[in-house]
């Protein structure tokens, strides 16, 4: 199994990391067989599995349940699990308690949303042996404060804030950072200023890796503009996942049509 240091090293050497969300053992097995680099047990399961309108109702129990299922299906794949809304924002201690549940469920890293306000918690967890993936840009758990699922970092001051957030999370010990729905040139600039991998979703081709929601890349529902249906030109689920991994590794995904200016 590739561990965190292997993944960080491969990204530093220029290899693009291919990441997909996953919520159950059968798909986890399929993704592991395809040699996907990282599985994200995303709280997007609130929408794609539970049929909720947002990620906010997802509980820590839900996340632990799905993390256990994924870990059983892909015991040799690096797994990141999302800390759900309300399980970590109150204090570093609350974050540690929630993160330890997900680590015990089989995660190798936890992801939390937010910039400077999360720096203390990132340091608290990483100093206690829990790798943390940050999440900047469009923060789905803050959809009510953001006024919808909108591209972030469009003004100079918002862009500068994102770069300083990324630098602070890095200095606090973050292992990698997901960048969601930000202009591609900003993601490129931000990526060049930190020494941990950035994983983009709607953030252009110059991140160190890419992540998509599994159901979106299989063309289910109404995928966002930055996603692509990899099943439409493939004759099996396995071929669709292989096509996605190949497109990420060769930087043919995302193209400009999947990116924001
Ligand atoms: O929950 C999720 O699927 C995510 C991705 C959007 C990165 O956090």
Give a description of the structure.
40% of the residues lie in helices and 14% in strands. The termini are far apart. It has a single domain, classed as Phosphoenolpyruvate-binding domains (TIM Barrel, Alpha-Beta Barrel). The relative contact order is 0.14. Helix 6 links the parallel strand 4 and strand 5. The mean pLDDT is 98. Bound molecules: 3-methyl-2-oxobutanoic acid.
Describe the secondary-structure layout:
Elements: H1 4-12, E1 17-21, H2 25-33, E2 38-41, H3 45-48, H4 60-73, E3 78-82, H5 92-104, E4 109-111, H6 119-126, E5 132-137, H7 143-146, H8 156-171, E6 176-180, H9 184-193, E7 198-201, E8 209-212, H10 214-217, H11 237-249
The chain binds 3-methyl-2-oxobutanoic acid.
Q: In summary, what is this structure?
A:
With 261 residues, this protein is α/β, with parallel strands linked by helices. 40% of the residues lie in helices and 14% in strands.
